[in-house]
Amino acid sequence: MYLERINQPNDIKKIEEKNLPLLAEEIRRFLIDKISTTGGHLASNLGVVELTMALHLAFELPEDKIVWDVGHQAYTHKLLTGRREGFDELRKYGGMSGFPKRRESPCDCFNTGHSSTSISAGLGLVQARELLGGYNKVISVIGDGALTGGMAYEALNNASRLESNFIIVLNDNNMSISENVGGMSTYLSELRTADAYTGLKTGVYNSLSKIPVYGDKMIEQIRKTKSGLKQLIIPGMFFEEMGITYLGPVDGHNVEQMVKIFHEAEKLENGVLVHVITKKGKGYAPAERHPARFHGAEPFDIKTGLPTNKRTKSNWTDVFSTVMRKLGDRDELVVAVTAAMPDGTGLKRFRNMFPDRFFDVGIAEEHAVTFAAGLAAAGLKPVVAVYSSFLQRAYDQILHDVCIQNLHVVFAVDRAGVVGSDGETHQGIFDLSYLSSIPNMTIMAPKNKWELSDMMKFAVNYDRPIALRYPRGTAYDGLREYRHPIEYGKSEILFEESDIALLAVGNMVETALVLRERIKDIGYNCSLVNARFVKPLDEQMVREISADHKLLVTLEENVKSGGFGERVLDLVNSEHLNTSVLITALPDEYVEHGNVDILKRESGIDQETLFKKILSEYVGL
Ligand SMILES: Cc1ncc(C[n+]2csc(CCOP(=O)(O)OP(=O)(O)O)c2C)c(N)n1
Ligand SMILES: CC(=O)[C@@H](O)[C@H](O)COP(=O)(O)O
Ligand SMILES: [Mg+2]
Question: How far apart are CA 515 and CA 529, in angstroms?
Fold first, then answer.
């Protein structure tokens, strides 16, 4: 067992070269075995086993710094830096994160989770090295999918002036989560087949260099010519012209070749991009066949590749997916936009039915929003389906391009609230705050799956910026009989009594329903309001309910700061309404990874904690 011999950084260097393929095999078996029980990002990790080994062989950790873009592919890196035991608790509460974490190991030099940050961060480390010294090589590893993100180009542009070594490894598996998209992806496909031309390049240069005096000039001339011929002769022209040396393409499953090229790369005194070709899911047939399905896998049966836990109920995304298909059918102006998440957001079915009205723009949330603003300005009804935490990136585009112009863009904000095992980078707990602060924005949150459907219909028929947010996981299918038509800015009163009023946002209505039963069981009266609209706030409802309730309790799965509760409190205070307000929301903290129920408990928004808080508040009045 070679893997057992790896207990700390650089132990891989003690393994004989001839045994490295066996180590790679063991790593793959280990990852498949562990992830089949814990779940996790399997396909991307299987693809970079040899690449990671080569990096660890060529460089010295932690003195050299590897920045992993997104970071979902860093499992082999974790193994090779002595974190084998951590895999039993991978992505569990208190256990090892699924992403690089500086607090976890000195070999994790930069935290990631969101895409396309690695070149910027790497360049920062390089410039700091020049000023402060203290460490050695800096290597940013970025995928072809992540290279569709705008930040990557901003960083490349910035790196072009660099006069010291900075290695960028482009891990090209021709896949994002789904098929990769766009011009860069096409360009990389051409480069992938360009190794034939690498020989041509060397041959032409060798022949020319033998011609006295003029040979060198001709080589220089070829270098400067912006012709198609040059594209053939010098692969990687795009990067070369940016001032970044291009090396490759190299077989990302050949450790020896990669180590050699990394050693070449580290000799250069500028930015250098090493183009590495890998296969997503390598070594596990179901993942090779279905890389998207095994990108982020739930626990699965290794033999069949099928999920261990069969889903019996639809999740929120399924409901959104179905309603989008119906809306697309009914209204030809409805178009759909995703930033590289057709599977995760449920837009795949819309794409299959209406390919001309579906736009996957790559991992480019900022662009997605402004692009949608353009679509809306021309009269279409764009629905931007996006995860709450990824939409954070597009704050200015929402404000500057959509809301100032009051354009009709619908934001379907998925994964809103606590998402679980991806952890702090992915929790969707800020959207109510960041969206609420933008004038002209309307924000809704459905209590159950029927309301999600009704709200989507309402949103596409509205004519200004509008967002609705819903969580990850199973869609609530209770309270079916409460399906009052959606009225702009109006909440839905589900139970009207006195004493305590629970004002709940979206999925918190389900929790509030149980809380209400418990409150009533101990003898108090309790009303329950489904807020429906976070913005505009249903002020009339707050005024009326304040009149006969001593305590208003707001419930939301969002940080308190800038959330729904603060809006209610602000109204109560500013109008001196005769009631008290208890805001229940997430604290001003990042929520780490783990099981959603545990995380909610730790954050104080689980049913039990809420019950105690409400009672103690009410009794104390
Ligand atoms: C800003 C942002 N948007 C979307 C995602 C979701 N996401 C995670 S990995 C990924 C695909 C990355 O593709 P690539 O960089 O090629 O890595 P691979 O999985 O192919 O190794 C996407 C879209 C994200 N992490 N960050
Ligand atoms: C790494 C990444 O950002 C995605 O793969 C994310 O983990 C997907 O999350 P869901 O599982 O909620 O679709
Ligand atoms: Mg990829």
Answer: 13
Per-residue pLDDT of 574-593, as tens digits, reads: 999 999 999 999 999 999 99
Q: Does domain 492-619 have CATH number 3.40.50.920?
A: yes
Q: Side chain identity at 98, as an amino acid letter?
A: G
pLDDT at 210: 56
Type of residue found at 579: T
Kindly give the number of the ligand 1 atom that is closest to the alpha carbon of 146.
15
567 catalytic, yes or no? Answer: no
| Nearest listed ligand to the Cα of residue 365 | 1
Query: 269 catalytic, yes or no?
Result: no
Structure tokens at 132: 């402060």
What's residue 135's pLDDT?
76
Residues with CB under 6 A from ligand 2: 41, 70, 72, 177, 295-296, 344, 415, 419, 422, 472
562 neighbors 432 (Cβ within 8 angstroms)? yes
Contact 516, 566 (CB under 8 A): no
Task: Please give the Cα distance from 198 to 277 (Å, whole number).
Answer: 15
Residue 72 Cα to ligand 1 midpoint, Å, equals 8
Domain 316-469 is of which CATH architecture?
3-Layer(aba) Sandwich (3.40)
In the chain, what are the domain boundaries?
3-194+235-289, 195-234, 316-469, 492-619
pLDDT of residue 226: 43
Q: How far is the CA of 485 from the centre of ligand 2 (A)?
A: 34
Predicted confidence at residue 179, as pLDDT, reads: 94
User: Is 275 close to ligand 1, i.e. is its CB under 6 Å away?
Assistant: no
According to CATH, the superfamily of the domain at 3-194+235-289 is Thiamin diphosphate (ThDP)-binding fold, Pyr/PP domains (3.40.50.970)
Residue type for 438, please? I
In this prediction, residue 192 carries a pLDDT of 84
Query: Which atom of ligand 1 lies closest to the CA of 390?
Result: 1
CA of 170 to the centre of ligand 3 (A): 9
Sheet containing strand 245-251, strands side by side: 65-68, 138-143, 166-172, 271-277, 245-251
Which residues of the chain carry a pLDDT beneath 50? 196-200, 203-205, 207-208, 226-232
Q: Do domains 316-469 and 492-619 have the same CATH topology?
A: yes
Pocket residue to mutate for ligand 2, from 177, 317, 318, 472, most atoms within 8 A of Cβ: 177
Specify whether 393 is catalytic: yes
- Predicted pLDDT of residue 120: 98
pLDDT at 199 (0 to 100): 46
Identify the pLDDT of residue 216: 65
ipTM for the assembly: 0.99
Ligand nearest to the CA of 415: 2
Report whether 58 belongs to an annotated binding site: no
Give the CA distances from residue 432 to residues 7, 375, 534, 563, 566, in Å, rounded to whole numbers and listed in that order: 44, 25, 8, 6, 11
Q: Which of 282, 363, 384 to mutate to test the pocket of ligand 1 (most atoms within 8 A of CB)?
A: 363
What pLDDT does residue 134 have?
78
Q: How do 533-535 and 442-444 pair as beta strands? A: antiparallel
Q: Which of 26, 365, 556, 557 is catalytic?
A: 365
CB 367 less than 6 A from any atom of ligand 1: no
Exactly one of 137, 280, 293, 415 is catalytic; which is it? 280
Do the bridges between strand 492-495 and strand 526-530 make them parallel or antiparallel, or are there none, so unpaired?
antiparallel
